[in-house]
Amino acid sequence: MVVHLVEHQLLVLLLQEDLVAASGLDHKSIVDVDTFLHDSVTATRSGKDEDATKFGIGQKVKLIKEIVNDGTYPHAAIGTLMMPEGAIGYIKSVGEFLQVIRVYEVHFLGVDIAPVEVVGCREHELEAMEDFRDEIAEEIEFMRKHREKYYSKD
């Protein structure tokens, strides 16, 4: 039964390949062969990232390397300029791609030539324009001091 299922799946794949070939489409008409794609599937923890995050949410940053579509943005061709070098933006969030690559979601404002305002950036593509202020930690410290001063247990 399993053998028949595998044979059936192989036959379906071959038929799909024949249909694509018959339509005149192939990968060469879709993908620019000169575009560098990062091998994120087999990558280990990126050596370009610090152990701790380098930037914080709300921090002003500058793009030190232009960002082009590597295929992760579906509404533009691969290789399309997504954000030019020198653009100024603010960190919206920090996440990870495939649990190995830290990605900063950066909101860039007033860049007319870019097709989008929010772009995912790597640590080595950004430069801090101001020191990070952890406003949450500042607020917690303020509340702690306030409680010590006005609500002591004496």
Describe the structure.
The structure is a single chain. The chain has 3 helices and 7 strands; from the N terminus they run ααβββββββα. By secondary structure, it is an alpha+beta fold. It has a domain at 60-136. The strands form 2 sheets. A 5-stranded antiparallel sheet has the order 6-5-4-1-7, with no helix packed on it. β4 and β5 (101-108) form a beta hairpin. It is elongated and about 85 Å long. The mean pLDDT is 77.
Summarize the structure.
By secondary structure, this protein is an alpha+beta fold. It is built from three helices and seven strands, in the order H-H-E-E-E-E-E-E-E-H.
Secondary-structure map:
Elements lengths: L1 H22 L3 H4 L29 E4 L3 E2 L12 E3 L4 E10 L3 E8 L9 E4 L4 E3 L6 H16 L4
